[in-house]
Predict the structure.
Amino acid sequence: MMDKVTKEYKIALIPGDGVGIEVIGAAWRVLNAVSDKFGFKLVSESFDWSCQYYERTGKMMPDDGIETLRKFDSILLGAVGWPEQVPDAISLHGLLLPIRKAFDLYVNARPHKLLPGTSGPLKKEHFDILCIRENTEGEYSGAGGRVHVGTADEVAVETSIFTRRGVERILRYGFEQAQKRSGKLASVTKSNAQRHSMVFWDEVTREVASDYPNVEVTRYHIDAIAARFVMQPETLDVVVGSNLFGDILTDLGAAIQGGLGFAASANINPAGGVPSMFEPVHGSAPDIAGQGIANPLAAIWSGALMLEHLGEFSAGMAMLSAIESTTSSGKFKGRDQGGSATTDEIASAVVAAL
Ligand code: GGG
């Protein structure tokens, strides 16, 4: 009789800094339970690339870090940044952003959903928005410089880069997601004030829209849509925007979900052939790091997105259902929801709910 071949996925774990270490430990525990249940194998290798690593080596990751990661099926990342040790601009541009750029992970998909049994600051029961953030260019391209440093004539220039290829492909991804959901897409710019890049974004939106006649597209300015997130979130479904606008809007989305501890994200190259990367939206949270009280649900949910991306849809969906059972029971609320459940207790509850 032939032995059954168990599918195996190689996962690079980069816990990073602060609570990243705690929530990735919790997410990995849940992922292992799910893989056992669904009959596939997750093999991990952990990398200590972080601000501590920087203190030791002067780098956030080794020179061959990208080539090392290339051999994996996916990357699961915790949090990057420990400002007391390393300036944020160095840690972010030394680890997270280079990974996104090197593997052309141009989609940053961030689902915002008020989970059952949780509450956010709005008096609304329905909050379900998928934000699609452009992830490799725009305001975070890193182009710019400073001259006359430290003098009264100092000049700092930070250039946003918007390419037709970059804008078109993220919009297409947004339209495709809208087709799969409610058929509604919100495209975010500030084209009244930013008359080159954002007018260009609007033009490309109109062009791309003609290929998706069944999607109703509405253009919003970033300030107006921020207000709409709060006042009329039910009128929004899929929202697509630039790197900076997406970054800001998704912290707002996370807050409305009840806190950053609930917001998951997927950095994806839809063409495949490289590892995509999954991470909770939150950062390293130095104020609560090391206490075992961080909410691991954003990291666990990111793990579910990873499984779906790997093609393990049922396992990913089971993981999200287990998260929802845990929150709806009301018994395992973390500090962010006014409870006292620890990181480990919440993770154990999700495992039990599986
Ligand atoms: N979860 C990853 C992390 O540490 N995020 C903090 C952060 O500021 N990220 C910026 C970004 O997503 O571009």
About this structure: DSSP finds eleven helices and twelve strands in the chain. Residues 105 and 269 are 4 Å apart (CA to CA).
